[in-house]
Specification:
Blueprint lengths: L1 H100 L1 E7 L5 E5 L9 E8 L2 E11 L2 E11 L2 H7 L9 E14 L8 E17 L2 E21 L2 E12 L3 E15 L9
Antiparallel strand pairs: 1-2, 3-4, 3-10, 4-5, 5-6, 6-7, 7-8, 8-9, 9-10
Length: 283
């Protein structure tokens, strides 16, 4: 009985072990399947990592190539920028040279659309040193000035003035002449102000001069001369035309002894030999 009981226990244990062995076999197969699946996943991941590494290497090469190209382009850009800056500076130097070395009268447009002069400009200054000739409706005058100081000058004039229609009748009754002239020499002084920053360097002046005027006439076949005192005051202007050549015009009044006042107007051209030299003080 005891042996049968032991045998039954053994059979029961054997059956349990058999069942357990089957379970373990199933679990082993499952584990093998899981391991195989994991192995496949790892292989796939390794392949993906390899592909990713190759892609990263390709991208790194591409980045290195782009950086090299960028450095080359940057070098070329800096070189081109330096050349452009040098060219721009040369153009600006040329424009400054045109502006500083050339004078009013004709205009030139720079690359920036700035109007500059194409004639040499007179040296800035307030001295009036000129020689010139003026023409009026009844007179011709040769004028010269020399600057004592800036804005202040001495003037001398030699002129030939046609007399007015009633002068001979009033002063020389019975005398008949188709053309009657005065010959005068005047000395005086004046003040001027020049606008150096304006295109044509306009100069405004006022002066007064005094001197003798001679009237020549024939009497009994001989040439006679009568002297009058002439005083002249005028207001005028100068404009630079080309280099040292200037246009001038003035309006004023003459007073002649024994005759009275008469208006005058004249236009002319001047040669300015210096805008800066003065008698007292140099430049």
């Amino acid at each position: 009985e005891r042996l049968r009981k032991q045998l039954a226990d053994l059979e029961e244990q054997n059956q349990y072990l058999h069942d357990r062995n089957g379970e373990l076999s199933d679990e082993g197969r499952q584990l093998h399947g899981i391991i195989a699946l994991r192995d496949e996943e790892l292989v796939s991941k390794q392949e993906a990592l390899v592909e990713r590494g190759e892609e990263i290497a390709y991208l790194n090469d591409k980045i290195a190539h782009l950086e090299e190209e960028r450095d080359a382009n940057d070098t070329a850009y800096q070189k081109a920028l330096a050349q452009a800056s040098e060219y721009r500076e040369s153009l600006e130097r040329r424009d400054r040279a045109l502006t500083q070395a050339e004078s009013p009268g004709q205009m030139h447009v720079t690359r920036r659309g700035v109007l500059v002069n194409t004639f040499n400009i007179l040296t800035p200054g307030q001295a009036r040193n000129i020689l010139g000739i003026k023409f009026g409706d009844r007179d011709i005058d040769i004028e010269g000035t020399i600057a004592l100081m800036p804005h202040w000058y001495l003037t001398a004039l030699f002129g030939i003035d046609q007399t007015h229609d009633d002068f001979v009748e009033e002063e020389f009754p019975g005398y008949d002449a188709d053309n009657a002239f005065f010959y005068d020499v005047l000395f005086g002084t004046g003040l001027n102000w020049r606008f150096n920053k304006i295109q044509s360097q306009p100069n405004i002046y006022i002066n007064t001069a005094l001197g003798p005027a001679w009237f020549l006439y024939k009497q009994d076949g001989d040439i006679e001369m009568k002297t009058y005192l002439l005083w002249r005051s005028s207001v005028g202007f100068d404009l630079t035309l080309h280099k040292h050549i200037q246009f001038t015009g003035d309006i004023g009044v003459d007073w002649m002894q024994d005759y009275g006042f008469s208006p005058r107007f004249s236009l002319g051209v001047l040669w300015s030999f210096s805008n800066s030299w003065v008698l007292f003080g140099g430049k």
